[in-house]
Design goal:
With 337 residues, the protein is an alpha+beta fold. It is built from twelve helices and seven strands. A seven-stranded mixed beta sheet has the order 2-1-4-5-3-7-6. α5 runs antiparallel to α9 and α6 runs antiparallel to α8. The longest helix is centred in the middle third of the chain and has 24 residues. It starts with a helix and ends with a helix.
Length: 337
């Protein structure tokens, strides 16, 4: 067929890559993790072909069922973080025995920039690694067409189609729904108790905090969307089943593409130090502070904000601790008079 095909036949005549397409079915979460990091799909996503691409709709399961208790230091209200992507981000940056500070701000870039150039959560380095799988897909598809490998090109096209279906569905599901009543200009301050004794303090405008903690991140799929998602999953399995019909060069290119794309996307996910969500950006600020006891953290925050009702409701202190603290303060005031 080509000089490359002849070289392969001469040097590795016994190589068999009939099952190369099975790599696409590997149960990895790289694509789902990317979705959780950026908060919504990006228009180039259909060209990022990685193992586990059919599991993108399962991004809402990445929090492993954790919905951490949260206390508002300004209003004493206690609730849970309902946004799974936010929980995943906090799990990633949190450290056991440390208080980590997070700042929430509005993405002030023009909508055209946010939609077409780069997601808010992606750093330049992370976005560059994200673009490599896109180039690899286009290069592989061009090479297969040039070599005349119709089966190989068809398999790539099927995977791109499956990704496009999931991308469209996720875009429809990711629109911000109910987020509570607007409170323009009001500053918020939250303390979040994560599993494994990881503590987060999240600050920003109340409306921005609501965007990243309350309501739904991705709404449930309706019947049509669920059907399209099922079709996309079957398309991936069909592509894996038909991969054996591609030429040896096509199978080798497909295998290389999946492995390179998975590696680059995993690096991109790791380089992202922030989270994009409904037009807001969460990022870690400062250095995490270590505490020997959670009670010490609670008392420090109580002294700072001047109220302890939120701590009692969260179970960080007891009502007896609060009463003892009040008695000590009263005694100090009396002795200084």
């Amino acid at each position: 067929m080509t000089s490359l095909q002849k070289w392969i036949d001469t040097h590795i005549p016994r190589a068999s890559l009939d099952a190369a397409g099975i790599v696409a079915l590997a149960d990895v979460q790289i694509v789902a993790e990317r979705t959780a990091i950026v908060g919504k799909p990006f228009w180039l996503d259909p060209f990022v072909l990685c193992p586990g691409l059919h599991r993108q709709q399962n991004a809402t399961d990445l929090n492993k069922g954790e919905y951490p208790a949260t206390g508002a230091l300004t209003t004493n209200y206690v609730f849970r973080v309902e946004n799974q992507a936010t929980v995943v981000f906090l799990q990633k940056i949190g450290l056991t025995g440390y208080l980590t500070n997070v700042e929430v701000s509005t993405d002030k870039r023009p909508k055209s920039t946010a939609a077409w150039i780069k997601p808010a959560a992606s750093s330049i380095a992370a976005h560059c690694f994200y673009l490599i799988p896109v180039l690899v897909t286009l290069t592989t598809l061009s090479a297969l067409v040039t070599f005349g490998d119709r089966w190989g090109a068809a398999i790539i096209a099927m995977l791109v189609c499956a990704r496009a279906c999931n991308t469209i569905i996720l875009y429809r599901r990711s629109h911000a729904g109910w987020k509570g009543q607007l409170e323009p200009g009001v500053e918020g301050d939250l303390v979040i108790l994560m599993s494994q004794d990881r503590w987060i303090r999240m600050r920003g405008l109340v409306d921005d905090l609501k965007m990243v903690t309350s309501g739904q991140w991705l709404r449930d799929m309706n019947f049509v969307e669920s059907s399209v998602s099922s079709f996309a999953t079957l398309l991936v399995y069909l592509a894996a089943a038909l991969a054996g019909n591609a030429s040896l060069v096509g199978k080798l290119l497909l295998l290389i593409q999946l492995l390179v794309s998975a590696t680059c996307l995993a690096i991109s996910n790791q380089l992202n130090a922030s989270l994009g969500m409904h037009g807001c950006v969460l990022k870690k600020v400062g250095t995490p502070k270590k505490y020997q006891r959670r009670l010490i953290l609670a008392k420090e925050l109580i002294d700072e904000v001047g109220t302890d009702e939120w701590a009692i409701r969260l179970g960080m202190i007891t009502s007896e601790d609060s009463a003892s603290s009040l008695k000590r303060e009263t005694f100090k005031e009396q002795t200084t008079m």
